Amino acid sequence: MKNPLKLDMQVLELLGLKEKDIHIYVTLLTLGSAPLRRIAEAALLNRGTTYDALRRLQSMNLVSFVDTKAKRHFTAEDPQKLRGLATRREVAIQEARHTLTKAIPSLRALAGSISHRPAVRYYEGDGGVRDILEDVLSHTSSRKNKTYRVYSSSGIRGLIAEAWPRYNTKRKKMNVHVKALAIGAGGKTVGMDARKWLLKEAKAPSYIFIYGRKTAYVAADDRDRLFGVIIDDDAIASTQRMIFDTIWEVL
């Protein structure tokens, strides 16, 4: 029997179902009530696969059965129960999120319990650079002084803007300020920012962000594909901040 119901595999996975499970369920809906062999024949599946699917459906309260003298007959429950299954999954995910939220401080403490060494994370592509920018905003907005520093290079400024065109809109919404030392021509203030030019005639191949205890470095390869790293180390960030502020005061 051809399955008339087509559900995206991602939807099935979120519900904890497999493609064959929903196929058996739909088949059973059309049959009404039937023994294992009849269900397998109608679904064009072997009995082992059919039985496994029925067991999973039973565990989710989507199938019930009645034992007669001769055979066990299975019946599909009301399709409304699929919505109930989704609701139960949603509640379970919310509970898991709540548990994880409480566990995160302990997990972070474990990460800091060993002798200190800088944490370095590598990112690639526009999505990776957006993750770096998200970290800059998230980390800076959580601090009392909501200002980060950046060396802004005309060499890749356009590529970074393409990675997140509305970055400055999000930055201003989060009340995050920025001080930029520009390298190369171009660039302008757009609100809640200050800019000075280190060099107007030269280009640099990378951006450097200095925020809190972190520094981030973003560059492009010879095919203009962005990549970057975040270094989580207070000593490195403090040194970079000191150099930046000294140059800022001189200009």
Tell me what the structure shows:
This protein has helices at residues 9-15, 19-31, 36-43, 47-59, 80-111, 125-141, 157-163, 167-173, 234-250, and strands at residues 33-35, 63-67, 72-76, 119-124, 147-153, 177-183, 193-199, 206-211, 214-220, 226-232. The protein has 251 residues and is an alpha+beta fold. The strands form 2 sheets. Strands 4-10-9-8-5-6-7 form a 7-stranded mixed β-sheet, sandwiched between helices. A hairpin with a 4-residue loop joins β2 and β3 (72-76). α2 crosses α3, α2 crosses α4 (47-59) and α6 crosses α7 (157-163). The protein is elongated and about 95 Å long. The mean pLDDT is 88.
Output the CATH homologous superfamily of the largest domain. Endonuclease Chain A
Specify the CATH architecture of the largest domain.
2-Layer Sandwich
Helix fraction, binned, reads: 40-55%
Unreliable stretches: none
Number of domains: 2
Mean pLDDT: 88
SS summary, helix count: 9
Largest sheet: 7 strands, mixed
CATH topology (fold) name of the largest domain: Endonuclease, Chain A
Helix and strand content put the structural class at alpha+beta
Outline:
elongated
Number of strands: 10
Q: β content, as a range?
A: 15-25%
